[in-house]
Write a structure and sequence with these properties.
24% of the residues lie in helices and 32% in strands. The protein has helices at 15-26, 42-52, 92-97, 100-105; strands at 6-10, 31-35, 67-74, 77-85, 110-114, 127-134, 140-147. The protein binds adenosine-5'-triphosphate and magnesium ion.
């Protein structure tokens, strides 16, 4: 297992390349936690990642719903993605009551979580911690850290 973290820098002009490079490393992990300030680009990156995976459903920010469910064809297998936004969560209990833990633990599913720090104890290891940093209005750097 790698101990050093990886970094990917990108703008909207080359985000498809960043997503492609990212997924080659990240696809083996079920839980992806996207950290970063408001407007850092968490939803934008997830949107492009879902496009890359040819998700069949409309991808949108789940801020009000807490969770969106998407499907894609993973080499002939129907694969579920849970796209969650924990910004409005108060604590772990609220997350559990909303059924979010069940989604995280569901075998063979992926979970992409925005604002994971709101209920960090709920994240089952191993997971990837992805910090998106705003460098300039156009440039972002994502740091990828495996937490196992
Ligand atoms: N390189 C980039 N990557 C991602 N977004 C970018 C980039 N450059 C500019 N942007 C812009 O930054 C904004 C990012 O918004 P986005 O909704 O993805 O942020 P977020 O991290 O999901 O915020 P929130 O915490 O409110 O959910 C968008 O308006 C997008 O067009
Ligand atoms: Mg968002």
């Amino acid at each position: 297992m790698p101990t050093a973290s990886l970094q990917i820098s990108y703008s909207l002009a080359n985000i498809e390349n960043a997503v492609h490079q990212f997924w080659q490393y990240a696809n083996q992990y079920r839980i992806l936690a996207f950290s970063g300030e408001m407007g850092a680009g968490k939803t934008t990156f997830i949107h492009h990642l879902c496009d890359h995976l040819k998700v069949r459903d409309a991808v949108s920010s789940p801020t009000f719903a807490l969770i969106n469910e998407y499907h894609f064809d993973d080499n002939g297998t129907d694969r579920v993605i849970y796209h969650m936004d924990w910004y409005r969560l108060k604590d772990d209990d609220e997350a559990i009551n909303a059924g979010l833990e069940d989604c995280l633990l569901q075998k063979d599913s992926y979970s992409f979580v925005e604002w994971p720090e709101k209920a960090i104890n709920l994240l089952p290891k191993p997971y990837l911690w992805l910090s998106i940093e705003v460098i300039t209005p156009e440039e972002r750097t994502m740091t990828i850290e495996l937490r196992a």
